[in-house]
Amino acid sequence: MECFKRILATAIIALLSTASIAQITSGKIIYERRTNLKKTVGDNPRASRFITDENKIRKENFELAFNETSSVFEFIENDEVEEGGMMKMLTQRNKVYQNLEDEEFFMIMNSWGQEMLLKDSLSERTWKITENKRKFAGHMCRKAIWEQNDSTRIYAWFSPDIVPSIGPEGFYGLPGAILGLATENGSIVYFATEIKEEEVDKAKMDYSEYKKDIFTKEELIITLVKGMGQWIKREKLEAMFSWY
């Protein structure tokens, strides 16, 4: 009888733990982003000459704070000494707000050392959900695939344990938070390393103070092509902004 009680108590605790995990609606997700600079830079001669086999993998950490209707994704500053010059500009550290109620996003874009503001509608993506599973930060996730274009796929692993439809950068649209994200060629990979269930101040996800010099995606692409067309083509900018 005593053994049965212990088994029953263990089962109840397990059920309660599962229920509490399945109800995460507010908190913070910590991601590590790994960028293969050789793959992202490609044949750009101006940037590729700075990249070696020793420094080609760049690791950076980001935080995604969220509640049921909003999120903000931002770079985590650290005390380590970083490269300067061109190497510092080979990855972007955009701050991205998502408003699921209004179906819009707002981004403070770190564009080659200059901040630019972008606000537009959330992108519609058609995800194919598979039966493949993988665990991130202790949460079992299912794999989904988005065909960005005829030659590029994005893989995402989402967990229904975390209710809001959110993810790193501008990704969303799955029945749960995206805890893993990767380009098909492995050039950019995000994976959650820690999840904190906690209340998040709504003010942290408020971007209403920004009122001037705000672009839509199309306006910003046109502006960047005019100013930087000799270094970056419109097609590459369109592919980059399709993430948002």
Question: What's a quick, concise take on this entry?
Answer:
The chain has 244 residues and is an alpha+beta fold.
Describe the structure.
This protein has helices at about 1-20, 35-40, 45-50, 85-90, 215-230, 235-240, and strands spanning about 25-35, 55-65, 70-75, 95-100, 105-110, 115-120, 125-135, 140-145, 155-160, 175-185, 190-195, 215. With about 240 residues, it is of the alpha+beta class. The chain starts with a helix and ends with a helix. It has a single domain, classed as outer membrane lipoprotein receptor (LolB), chain A.
| Annotation, overall tally of beta strands | 12
How many H/I helical runs? 6
Mean pLDDT: 86
**Low-confidence runs (pLDDT<50, min 5 residues)?**
1-21
Structural class: alpha+beta
Order of helices and strands: HEHHEEHEEEEEEEEEHH
Task: Supply Rg.
Answer: 20 Å
Give the CATH level 1 class. Answer: Mainly Beta
Helix content: 10-25%
* Overall body shape: globular
What can be said about the biggest beta sheet? 12 strands, mixed
Strand order of the largest sheet: 7-8-9-10-11-1-2-3-4-5-6-12
State the CATH topology: outer membrane lipoprotein receptor (LolB), chain A
Fraction in beta strands? 35-45%
- CATH-scheme architecture: Clam
Number of domains: 1
Distance between the termini: 58 Å
Task: List the SSEs and their pairings.
Layout: H1 2-21, E1 27-36, H2 37-41, H3 45-48, E2 57-66, E3 70-75, H4 85-88, E4 95-99, E5 104-111, E6 114-121, E7 127-136, E8 139-147, E9 153-159, E10 177-183, E11 188-197, E12 214-215, H5 217-228, H6 234-241
Parallel strand pairs: 6-12
Antiparallel strand pairs: 1-2, 1-11, 2-3, 3-4, 4-5, 5-6, 7-8, 8-9, 9-10, 10-11
Helix pairs in contact: 5-6
